Each structure stands twice: as C-alpha cells, then as structure tokens.
Amino acid sequence: MCGIIGYIGLRKASEVLTEGLKRLEYRGYDSVGIAVVNNRQLEIKKDRGMVDEVSSALQFTTVEGNIGVGHTRWATNGVVCRENAHPHFNEKKTIVAVHNGVVENVSELRGMLEEKEYRFSSDTDSEIIPHLLEENHKTQPLLQAFMETAAQLKGSYAIVALSTEDTGERLLLARKNSPLIIGVGRGEMFCASDIPAMLPYTKTFVPLEEGDVAVLTRHGYKIFSPDGSEVERRQITVDWDAELAQKGGYPHFMLKEIFDQRHFINETIASDISSARQLIDEYEKIDVVACGTSYHAGMLLAYLLSEKGKISQAYIASDYQFIAKPGKKTLAIAISQSGETADVLQALRHAGDSRKIAITNTVGSTITRVSDETVYLNSGPEIGVAATKTFTSQLAIVSKLIYGKQRLEPLSGLIGKMLEKENQIKEIATGLAGKEHAFFIARGMNVPIAYEGSLKFKEITYIHSEAYPGGELKHGTLSLITEGVPVIALAPRDKALPKLFGNIKEVKARGGMVVSVTNDGEVEKESDYSVRIPEGLDPALYPFALVVPLQLLAYHVSVLKGINPDKPRNLAKSVTVE
Ligand code: F6R
After folding, report:
1. Which of 142, 185, 246, 434 gives the lowest tally of CB atoms within 10 Å of its CB?
2. How far is the CA of 325 from the centre of ligand 1 (A)?
3. Residues in contact with 536: Cβ distance below 8 Å, sequence separation at least 6, in sequence order
4. Cβ–ligand 1 contact at 1 (below 6 Å)
5. Where are the beta strands (DSSP E) in 114-227?
6. What's the angle, vertex CA 465, arms to CA 463 and CA 470, rounded to 5?
C-alpha cells in the first residue's frame, strides 16, 4: 500500500525523504510527494508518477529544512492525479499530513468540515486529516488535537503530521491497522511504513501498536496509548544490511531476490520452529490462512498436514470469515510475508480464541503480535512486488515443520543448480512473450507450485494465465487449447506422473505448446521446451526445483515485454486494505 516516511534531525530532510521514498516505492507508485518545513514555511512538492521521475522533475532535493514528511501512493480513494497525491495540507498551509489506509467515515467528517467552510482540494479521504486537525487545534494544544483527530477516524490509518506553528518542532504519528515504525537515531529520528526505508541511518526500531499515538523530536520519542497515557513499546534491532535493500548490480530487485534464494534459504532452514511444531502436535484440526503467493505455500502446508493425518485446509484469508467456523479446538496458522496484510489480520480476528501461529518475514509486524507463536522466514527484505525469495522461504518453513531440517540441507545447492538454467529459460521466454494466454498444470503436491507459477506469470507479464491440477483441463479448459497455446507442465517423476503425462498428450494432440519442468525422458520428448530438474532428487524438494524456473520465466517474459517486473501495474506490496 502507500509508503510513508518522516524525518526530524540535522540532515537535509528532502534528501532523507527522497532516498526513503525510493526504498518504499514497492508499497505503491502512482504518485509521490514531500513536505519540508523551511524557515517556518511549508514547501510541498508532489505529482503523479514514480519517485525517480517526479523527484527529479520537481527537484525535491533542492528543498532546504530539517523536518519533513514524504509519501508514495497506491490509490484507494480518488484517481491518480497531482491533487490527490500526498502530502495533504490545510488551506493556510500550516498543517501537513501523509496517510496510509482508508478513512471509512470520510463523508460524515467532510460534511461536518464543509459546513464550517473548510475547502478541500482533492478527492481523497486523507485530506480530511489536516483540516480536522486544524479544527481540533482551535480549542486545544496540538498533541491533544492530534489525538482527538485520530480518535475521530474510523477505518485504518498510519499518519504522520506536523504543524509549522508548533513551537516544539515535532512529528506526530498515529497508527491503526496500518504499519508505522519509528527509527531511532542519535540526535535525529525517523519514521516509516517499513524498515528498509530507514536502514541507511539506523538499525534500531520501535514498531507502533494498534491505536498508538507518538511524538518524535530530534532527541527522542514518546508513545501514548489511545487513553492518552504514556506507554513503553519494545525496541527491536535488525541485522539487515542497507545494501540488502539495494539492487547490488542486478537490473531489477526481482532478479536479485531470485538469485538471493541460494543464500537465504540457509538462514530460513536455521529458523527456530520448535514451539510451532509443538503446538501443531497438540491439534488435530488446523486451518491455514493466507493470500496470494503466501496462500500457495499455505496450500502445500495443508496438503502435507493432511497427509500426516491432521484435518487441515488452506483458506484464502479474505474469505475465511464467510466460510469457516474455527473454534477452540482449531489451530490457525497464518502465512504472510509482510505480516501486515489486512485480509490475513481479519482472518485471525475471525479465528477468535483459537491458538495461532504466524509465519512471516517481518520482525515486529502486527501478525506476530496477535499470534501465540511466530516462525520467521529470515529472508531479508524483499523489495520486488512479486514475492519470490519469501515464497521459497515459506516453502522451506512448511517443509521443515513436516520433514525436519535434515532433508532440507541440499536446498541451497539445488536452487543454485536451477538458477544455472537461466539462459535456457531466457530462450523459452522468447517463445512465450508474444502469447496472450498460458496455462500451468501439475498434480498432487506440486499443484500449489503451478498456481504460484501462474500468479507470478500473470502479475508481471500481463499475459492471461490460469493453473489447474492437470486432470481438470478436460473438464472445460481444453476448449481453449489450440495451436501454439502454451501449457507449462510441472512433471517430476512421482506417483502422479502417469496421469499428468496423459494430460500433456491431450494438450499436444490439440497443437498446444508444451513447456515442461521434469526429470523424465518421455515427458521431454513430448515437450516443445523442457527444463531439466536433477535426477534422484528427494520428492520433498520437488516444489523448490520447480518454482525457480517459473520465477525466472515470468521475470524474463516481463523484461522482454518492456515491463518493469519490480513494479507491476495496479499492484503493491503489503496490502493493508481489505
Ligand atoms: C504475489 C504477491 C502477493 C502476496 C499477497 C500476500 O507475488 O506477492 O500475492 O503474496 O499479497 O502478501 P503477504 O504475504 O505479505 O501477506
């Protein structure tokens, strides 16, 4: 969703904000803006477009001043245009605010303010905030007025605001259902929606909790709970290197992150799963909730738990509240890379009294606070919008929970071997870049990988794609398989292969183009293109061998089509609205 950054200190704020926005752009990238206080005047620069383009056109870093806020937008309310870009401000231009989330009672609040002759210059819900703060500030000090403003908003928000009339030089922060993290420096303070934006300056962070309001000055911070009392929140330290959030010589974050998998997988398999495993042993019924890519890892988990004799099902988190009836006897496992996905958090609320396990990459994220146990992916920051290394890490945690660590030892080497196929995959990508449709098929425990391959493919190539267990093709989709239509078959040698082989032949008989990932000679013969997976591989590791070529395929088709795979249209990482 939107990315927020705030700075107060002695550095040139416009530089810190611009750099932070570049690092936050994966959260949203349709418009961008900064507001900096310079000689008690607000200087605001904003427009539609990506950070690089807007910040150089409007010369963001020429703005002087040491306190300011920045925002990169993913539109929810109001079209993409300059007026709707953040920061938003009051008419006198003395109060400015950036907001991530959705204000649900916007009509009521806007009506009330318009009656008092406040004039709005955008269609966003967020613009309510500076006006409401101005109104509340008429009768009370700024901090109290800010607290009242936050309390009046229904929905979700992470807000950073400031006033040029504030004698104390402060940034005001509030969070509810949208992440906001304080970065603790020496003689300077930061805040942002996500840690990577602040990594060049500090490794010490304080994630705000639901309903918190905070005040940042150059010298420190104070946090208040909704009732106004001051509270302590846990400081966390991360050992992520700022370089990790850079491209490191790769043309895109996505490619870097695909290659990073060789290394991070070892960190993942070292992750402590003991308490989670113990909890799993105690339960017979286990619901897995997740969205998108994480849901595919969840499908594998539910499949493997069922094989172990548990009653387990994976649910799309946004639908869980409508179709599941978890109770005290249910264990809920939530998988979320960001740990902030609104649909997942809602599913966990629906899980009520059930015990909960979180599987996430994000230290201190909301999901960890509402769960009884947390397992960390340890994948390092993932900036590309399309999840790659975090998916592989999720698969590794799922596999470790089921098989234990030893069987996963060959993973780093295996991923390295599959990455060596990049040149061959580039060639296959050339054959696919001009297509309009693609289908992905697999059987049994590899079906979630077909779903994942298809999702990755459609989201960054804009080619329509669908995935099925191979047996489903003949129940309808086969009517779409004509001359040259690509079908990507995940066909490792296992008990399901004879059936999948039949499905591949059905495709060939209709002139379809078969791209297989396999270790079987017969399948290779039937294929137009084939990527080989190692002989004698432990079937528990097939999902890993299969997914890497699919990630590379999606990436290279995307690049061939001139798309930026790091920032696919309409999408954003960390989806904090339901
Ligand atoms: C696709 C992708 C999304 C996310 C989904 C859930 O490449 O990244 O489908 O997997 O939005 O996000 P998390 O895992 O943060 O809950």
Report:
1. 434
2. 24
3. none
4. no
5. 157-163, 171-176, 181-184, 189-192, 204-207, 213-217, 220-224
6. 155
* Range of the structural domain that residue 86 is part of: 3-243
Whole-number average pLDDT of the chain: 94
Q: Please indicate whether residue 2 is annotated as part of the active site.
A: yes
Contact call for residues 108 and 148 (beta carbons, < 8 A) = no
How far is it, in rounded angstroms, from Cα 485 to Cα 68? Answer: 53
Residue 492 lies in a domain: no
How far, in Å, is the centroid of ligand 1 from the Cα of 542?
22
Nearest atom within ligand 1 for CA of residue 391: 10
510-560: pLDDT as tens digits: 999 999 999 999 999 999 999 999 999 999 999 999 999 999 999 999 999
Coarse DSSP helix, strand, coil percentages of the chain, rounded to the nearest 5 percent: 40, 25, 35
pLDDT tens-place string over residues 221-276:
999 998 889 999 989 888 777 666 677 779 999 999 999 999 889 989 999 999 99
Is 446 a pocket residue for ligand 1 (Cβ < 6 Å)? no
The CATH number covering residue 150 comes to 3.60.20.10
| Segment 465-491 mean pLDDT | 96
Percentage of residues in the chain with pLDDT exceeding 90?
84
Burial bucket for residue 531 (CB in 10 Å: 0-12, 13-18, 19+)? buried
- Tell me, yes or no, whether 362 lies in a domain: no
Does residue 293 have its Cβ closer than 6 Å to ligand 1? yes
Query: For residue 429, is it within any domain?
Result: no
Identify residue 544 by its one-letter amino acid code. Answer: F
Q: Verify whether residue 291 is a known catalytic residue.
A: no
* Per-residue DSSP letter, 203: S
For the chain, report the end-to-end CA distance as a whole number of angstroms. Answer: 11
Spell out the residues 6+ positions from residue 112 whose beta carbon is closer than 8 angstroms to its own. none
- Output DSSP code: residue 61: G
Provide mean pLDDT across the span 418-430.
Answer: 97
In this structure, are residues 471 and 322 in contact, taking their beta carbons and an 8 Å threshold?
A: no
Q: Cα(289)–Cα(367) distance, rounded to whole angstroms?
A: 12
Q: Please, which residues have CB within 8 angstroms of residue 300's CB and are 6 or more apart in sequence?
A: 395, 398, 445, 448, 543
- Could you give the angle at the alpha carbon of 406 between the alpha carbons of 401 and 408, nearest 5°? 70
For ligand 1, mutation pick of 1, 253, 291 (most atoms within 8 Å of CB)? 291
Which residues, in sequence order, are CB contacts of 23 under 8 Å at separation 6+? 196, 197, 199, 245, 383
What are the CA-CA distances from residue 405 to residues 49, 517, 536 (Å)?
Answer: 46, 26, 19
User: Is 107 among the domain residues?
Assistant: yes
Residues 6+ apart with CB under 8 A from 467: 439, 440, 441, 442, 447, 450, 451, 453, 454, 455
Where b means 16+ CB within 10 Å and e means fewer, 542-573 reads bbbbbbbbbbbbbbbbbbebeebbbbbeebbb
The count of domains in the chain is: 1
Dihedrals phi, psi of 363, to nearest 5 degrees? -60, 130
